[in-house]
Amino acid sequence: MMNVSRPPRRRPLRAGQRASSASDRAPADRGPSYGAPVWLFDLDNTLHCASHAIFPAINRGMTQYIIDALGVSHDVANHLRTSYTRRYGATLLGLTRHHPIDPHDFLKVVHTFDDLPAMLRAERGLARMLAALPGRKIVLTNGPTDYAHAVLAALGIERLFERVVAIEHMRTRERWRAKPDHAMLRKTLRDARVAFADAILVEDTRGHLKRYRRLGIRTVWITGHLPAHVASGGRPHYVDHCVRSLKSLGRGLRSGALRSRRQ
């Protein structure tokens, strides 16, 4: 693992906007991508080790926000935070459905840190490993937009992704959505002109992989940033390829473990 130094500030991309320096993005007028892999990367505990400092800080921030907003005890706030995550995929979804909170304020407060780069840990050579992967690359995260772009910029890899799909982009007119919602992923891939058979989801959360595997996408479970007891037990049947490090993704392509469903 490495400490990440703060890079020069970059102007964040707007929702759906593609990075101008991404050489592997598809033309805007192209239909669904056939053949070449399209990598859907989770952010936390996938592209960096959120368990080190980010997740503990976010969890504390969520619990305190719930205490302040709802006037409940610390134990009740913790229960709401964890139970809503298990039930809906994200604490925010439970809060918006059952309580009168401002979702944008919640996201901003609990994902803002005084010195984000100092909290980050990532694999050595991260940018090089990602750049070496063939195909398009998209970030798909239940975190908010500003936080996602700040993390990618601090890691020095923002330019490698053609777009960031954050939780604000997953919502519909009716409600907020998040992984592992099926309708959200269908719309995300349709908007990005990606065929299900060409998508490869790289995630640390087994529940997301299990649910999305049913749609026909390829699944990679990355375990290198997870606690040992969570990463144990072997490869689940709904996981096409299990890796500890992102450097093993290319090996999965070469070995056939991530062979396209079209083949």
Question: Can you characterise this structure?
Answer:
The chain has helices at residues 54-70, 74-88, 91-98, 103-110, 116-119, 126-132, 145-155, 167-170, 182-191, 206-213, 228-231, 249-255; strands at residues 2-3, 38-41, 121-122, 136-140, 163-165, 199-203, 218-222, 241-243. The chain contains twelve helices and eight strands. The strands form two sheets. It has a six-stranded parallel sheet, with helices on both faces. Helices cover 39% and strands 11% of the residues. Helix 1 (54-70) packs across helix 2 and helix 2 (74-88) crosses helix 3. The chain has two domains: 2-49 and 122-255, HAD superfamily/HAD-like (Rossmann fold, 3-Layer(aba) Sandwich), CATH 3.40.50.1000; 54-110, DNA polymerase, domain 1. The model is unreliable at 1-16 and 20-34 (pLDDT under 50). The longest helix is centred in the first third of the chain and has 17 residues, at 54-70. The chain has 263 residues and is α/β, with parallel strands linked by helices.
